[in-house]
Amino acid sequence: MTVGILHMEKRKLVIIGSGPAAYTAAIYAARANLQPLIYEGFMSGPSGGQLMTTTEVENYPGFPKGITGPDLMAQFRSQAERFGTRLLAEDVLSVDLSKRPFLIVGSSTKMEAHSVIIATGATAKRLEIEGAGEDGFWQKGVTACAVCDGAAPIFRNKPLFVIGGGDSAVEEAIFLTKYGSRVYIVHRRDQLRASKIMAERALKHPKIELLWNSVIEKISGDQVVRKVLLKNLETNQTEEREAGGVFFAIGHQPNTSFLNGQLKTDDKGYLIVNNGSTETSLPGVFASGDVQDHKYRQAVTAAGTGCMAALDAERWLSSMGLE
Ligand code: NAP
After folding, report:
1. How do residues 286-318 score in pLDDT, each as one tens digit?
2. In the CATH hierarchy, which fold is given to the domain comprising 8-123+252-319?
3. What pLDDT, in 10s, does the model give residues 22-52?
4. Residue 53, C-beta contacts closer than 8 angstroms, at least 6 positions apart
5. Exposure winner among 105, 149, 151, 157, fewest CB in 10 A?
6. 145 noted as active-site residue
């Protein structure tokens, strides 16, 4: 791809991403006088990250009456801006971390940076099932986040189907028992991947039923989801069932492809950070939020690691005489 370079600057700190981790890093870095610049993304999705697709957030401290995900992100963003963060609604196409300062190439800008914070998050994986896409029932009963969307009225007292067999699938299924008439976990194998304790909870739960060796082949309905077509992979038999919702819980994909393997990741692609810090495998590059966390994945933990990344970057810049 040819990039028309309109602009080139040198920065102490560039932050890539736009969720709670990125904005918190920016707030701290801006207050520490690092004049941070954020690449918020554009084609990669709305700035604000995964919270932009949630409704009410009731577990973010400081908002006892709850706040919507987009409102919460708007507040983070304006706080980052208030202290002088420069925001660029632009995707990062590539980075070159082999030279210093590092080089960041956006869709219309090029930036040199002494330090970088990567806070690009993770994206919930989805399956290409007939009826599950944007032209079907996506966000009309099909979602990839039970905790975000499960309380919506369309799911109340309906049979709900969670796809997956890991801890997320079990956790989401248990969460959904508060709302659905019955919750089915549709798993492609005959054994859960979830931890023993979580698996036992699902197996013992009176409102949860495991559909082993099964997949959903088709989702249908009218304005919202009404039915799913299930297929048993052992017998090849199909069966149509009434359904009020389908929830993908098949894991997340950390958004690291633009890094082109320049930083160490685990086998699932999450950036590896040094224990208790946000330092990646390369000095001067820090990671915060879901791109380095497959365990907690909460707005508040992302914000916490965003703060850590800014403090780590500040100390590193200072130790290198680059502040
Ligand atoms: P995960 O452990 O990777 O499990 C993904 C599940 O989705 C697996 O059961 C997998 O099936 C299934 N799957 C993947 N691709 C599929 C496909 N194309 N079609 C059908 N099924 C598919 O992901 P996760 O459950 O999101 O958990 C991620 C990490 O977070 C784990 O380390 C987990 O322990 C942690 N976590 C912890 C908690 C907790 O402790 N409370 C809660 C949530 C997550 P197979 O089993 O056949 O591969």
Report:
1. 999 999 999 898 999 999 999 999 999 999 999
2. FAD/NAD(P)-binding domain (3.50.50)
3. 999 999 999 999 999 999 998 766 677 777 7
4. 69, 139, 145, 148
5. 157
6. yes
